[in-house]
Amino acid sequence: MVDDKLALDGITVLDLGQVYNGPYCSLLLAHLGAHVIKVEPIDGEHTRRRSPQPEPYPLILLNSNKDGLGLNLKSGQGRRLFLDLVATADIVVENFAEGVLERLGCGWDELQSANPRVILASGRGFNDHGGWGGVPAMDLAVQALGGVLAVTGFADGPPVKCGGAVADILGGTTLAVAALAALHERERTGRGQHVSVPMLDATLPTLTSPLAGYLETGGTLPERTGNRHGGLEVAPYNVYRCKDGWMTVFCAREQHWRALATTLGHPELVEADGFSSMRSRAQNMDEVDDLVTAWTTQRSRAEASAALLAQGVPCAPVRGIGELLDDAGLRDSGALPEVEHATRGRVRAFGSPFHVRGRKPRPLVPAPTLGQHSRDVLHSRLDLSGDDIDRLLTEGVIA
Amino acid sequence: MVDDKLALDGITVLDLGQVYNGPYCSLLLAHLGAHVIKVEPIDGEHTRRRSPQPEPYPLILLNSNKDGLGLNLKSGQGRRLFLDLVATADIVVENFAEGVLERLGCGWDELQSANPRVILASGRGFNDHGGWGGVPAMDLAVQALGGVLAVTGFADGPPVKCGGAVADILGGTTLAVAALAALHERERTGRGQHVSVPMLDATLPTLTSPLAGYLETGGTLPERTGNRHGGLEVAPYNVYRCKDGWMTVFCAREQHWRALATTLGHPELVEADGFSSMRSRAQNMDEVDDLVTAWTTQRSRAEASAALLAQGVPCAPVRGIGELLDDAGLRDSGALPEVEHATRGRVRAFGSPFHVRGRKPRPLVPAPTLGQHSRDVLHSRLDLSGDDIDRLLTEGVIA
């Protein structure tokens, strides 16, 4: 059975999101079938303004399946149009700095007056309690304040940022959870709510291993262990050099070690002193790593991975960005598909991470250009005439 | 107005999750008010079995507000009890390897027969399409195959894992989005669905900047840029040494640079050749970083951060795990509170990342010991007598 319906059919989202956090939240809702209207300032959202390219890739990647409306929220007319749209909407997503929405006259009180059923979902950086409310909530700052930097890198080197924008994306995903929970509650109460998610709170649970290690040992472990196990209790567990790059090998159980030692050509080590238990291997971590490296450096990632996986040893090649883009599986399964963009031609965009048994994913429509759907949206939702819309364009209220 | 109700009041979740991915998904649902029953094998879930401590910290951190039921799903009686519980539940969460649930006789067909309204939410590692279905889906493997390792670290060094378990936690969070969307759809259709989320798909959007940089330049940028901007287009943007550690400074706009140059005691650089535009600063990145370092190394993180934030320059101290645990804001705001555990005494656990206007978070009840609520659950939900339960304990069907 293939079903064309999607879970959020009939739900309308006004997306004031900018850069990564807010836009990713509403992208998830769009993948699930919501009608998402991306509301941008008339000179475009921040991602456009900071790029020489009017349709920059971050915007393309994160804004598929959204209609584009350019709207000047700083004008009285623009603000009234927005509140009229709120009256027709279910969810408003935003990740402005604290207080910006209120200064625009579109805070929670105004939204509730316009529509008591509307849900406001706010992406934030930090909770006020810590006194960090004033720190601009870029991903790098959240990684720094939230401990991700401290636990990434080598013990004898500086803290290292995670190259992925984990705070932005985890914050946005957790915000989508909050918005959908509020939607569920609305079935019972008939009323919306204002939910917010600080990126730091959303990111903290990624530190389960380092926090657990610290709490179990009283903080005697090194904070950063490079590519080794955070608690230095598992070996082999590392990133190993191959002929053509790097790969991970990770023996979680004794059966993995037995299979690995045999594959490496050292079956005698399975029972040897210093190698026969996880504890002893962890104590001889350098020797264990040298044994694995001696084998991996003679092989390509593909050869080594195939040989180890065939024996049930957990491992994986370290793949680069170009390899991800070349992966036909990712392209065809929908995670990173190709789409035809209005002005940039064939581009890549993030597909849906949701797999529903018996259902095809929503086809991907590329990110809108600035104001691409302004006419459609204002006509279909607020019944404005062509003349009204022309006047708003001329007056700079919409783009 | 403070409201004691929670969004998912009345929703029951059976949590077969293990380690981080599944348990974090259902922890989010528990924070939102769902009644979550953690169903563990009678010798405990994997996190207990791999630790010398029967109540290990990862389990405590990720399993608050859940009831604990020990149940042998490999026995016929255990399986029947589980399906009887499914008949009373709304959502089943699991992150076994592909096919395990089916082998236990609790696959989608059996769940649907037991309860056509139930939602099955499955955490996975990779999508089949890429041929990586056989790779054990540990966080490290997903970071390797999914590009997080390749973009983390310095250009002249090896790839580095993110010290946070970003794939596990992002996968689990995205799975919670999927489960709640299915719950929303059930209001309309009356039927459950089987949703699954591969961790790799959930993690890919963290690579927005590296993917965008690659796609815009055709892959000419270095894949890893240490703590510098991924596109090497922003300066200052780095982690700088202080007297007592490290801090980030990130000038996203010209106003930030003006404020920073003045604070550093070099107002002349605001207009100087090689420093007056983002483009020129990016070309002189080493000199710019030297100027910032000369200033930060003379100061503590707290002094330097306070001085820069007072001038509106985005920055943040790099905080270690011990500092996160000592942060009274995190402890009191609910993100990382203290709770009193049944056997371990005062411990820390992850609080709710959800902030709802006018509502207090759900009070945190510490993670259950193995089988702590077996009697309660089987009596209250399946009406089993004390004698029945004693017999099941004796026969090793429950713990």
The whole-number mean of residue pLDDT values of chain A reads: 95
The total tally of domains of chain A equals 2
Helix percentage of chain A: 25-40%
State the assembly state of the protein chains: homodimer
Q: Biggest interface and its residues per chain?
A: A-B, 136 and 136 residues
Total E-strand runs of chain A = 12
Shape of chain A: elongated
Q: Into which percentage range does the β-strand content of chain A fall? A: 5-15%
Determine the CATH topology of the largest domain in chain A: Rossmann fold
**How far apart, in Å, are the first and last alpha carbons of chain A?**
43 Å
CATH architectural grouping of the largest domain in chain A? 3-Layer(aba) Sandwich
Compute the gyration radius of chain A: what is it?
25 Å
The CATH homologous superfamily of the largest domain in chain A: Crotonobetainyl-coa:carnitine coa-transferase, domain 1
Write down the CATH class of the largest domain in chain A.
Alpha Beta
Order of H and E elements of chain A = EHEHHEHEHHEHHEHHEEHHHHEHHEEEHH
| Number of DSSP helical runs of chain A | 18
Largest sheet of chain A: 6 strands, parallel
Strand order of the largest sheet of chain A: 3-2-1-4-5-6
